[in-house]
């Protein structure tokens, strides 16, 4: 006899749902609503021991609390989100899960738009809504690309409902990037400027294209890619989730997983410091589990200044354990 991971009630290997709490026993996922613990288990430096005043025994930093710092790890997928050094709160969110016995992994990263109200609520609602749609669809054998479209539209609708009529100009909004990994393919979907990178033995590739005014100007040949890096419109979004998004569908791409590799989802709190695939490849640790990769990438952003919230999810493709 086994026990439910949610409420510890006895369950059997044939049960699909826990009779006590209703949890889906065929799916493993991060907590709905995000991190629930009052304090993080680890310091950004990786230390796990704190003195009675809450300072890290390794580096001396104060222990992060609540959404300031959170880590989750399942076999083959892990994520870390951190408030950074300059922001008052963490408006990034992550969620991921697995469909047991199907070899499916789904992960979502959303970055709350700082100029909107309740940005952290928008991003958390978006990742939870999207992940639920993805896992439900894939559990029943759905198409990953259609599931991605459905997940984004559901998240967009959910975030849109947070808007207040009297404050339409600051309606909650966020960016979005996700991946659905099956035994043979990976499907990436995105809206905004959160990114996905593929890192393998042959090198690193950026899979997404930013939905920003600057990126559009580069595509139209108005400015160069180098000029876009310092342009004041570099982070002005042309697409987002939330009220007045006018979103009809995300951009998606599906590719076959041919060799062991890692897929990295991240908010701009990381890629601001590592904009090119080669930059990411240079600092990526080799031969370590996904959670160690995610921790190291977050630490790189913190050491580089940590000007924004930082979120990284790392997914193993075809059993790859490093780049």
Structural class: alpha+beta
Q: So what's the CATH class of the largest domain?
A: Alpha Beta
Main sheet makeup:
6 strands, antiparallel
Using only CA atoms, what is the Rg?
Answer: 19 Å
Q: Low-confidence parts lasting 5 or more residues at pLDDT below 50?
A: none
- H and E string: EEEEEEEHHEEEEEHHEEEHHHE
DSSP strand count: 16
Helix content: 10-25%
**Mean pLDDT over the full residue set:** 88
Shape from CA axes? globular
CATH domain topology of the largest domain: Phosphatase 2c, domain 1
**Strand proportion:** 25-35%
Placed side by side, the strands forming the largest sheet appear as 3-6-7-9-10-14
Write the layout of secondary structure elements.
Layout: E1 2-3, E2 10-11, E3 27-29, E4 69-74, E5 77-82, E6 92-99, E7 104-111, H1 119-139, H2 144-160, E8 173-174, E9 176-181, E10 185-191, E11 195-200, E12 203-206, H3 213-219, H4 225-230, E13 241-242, E14 251-256, E15 261-266, H5 268-271, H6 277-283, H7 290-303, E16 310-317
Antiparallel strand pairs: 1-2, 3-6, 4-5, 5-16, 6-7, 7-9, 8-13, 9-10, 10-14, 11-12, 11-15, 15-16
Helix pairs in contact: 1-2
Question: Can you put this structure into words, describing what you see?
Answer:
The chain has 323 residues and is α+β, with helices and mostly antiparallel strands. It folds into 2 domains: 1-27; 31-43 and 52-317, PPM-type phosphatase domain (Phosphatase 2c, domain 1, 4-Layer Sandwich). The protein has helices at 119-139, 144-160, 213-219, 225-230, 268-271, 277-283, 290-303, and strands at 2-3, 10-11, 27-29, 69-74, 77-82, 92-99, 104-111, 173-174, 176-181, 185-191, 195-200, 203-206, 241-242, 251-256, 261-266, 310-317. The longest helix has 21 residues, at 119-139. The mean pLDDT is 88.
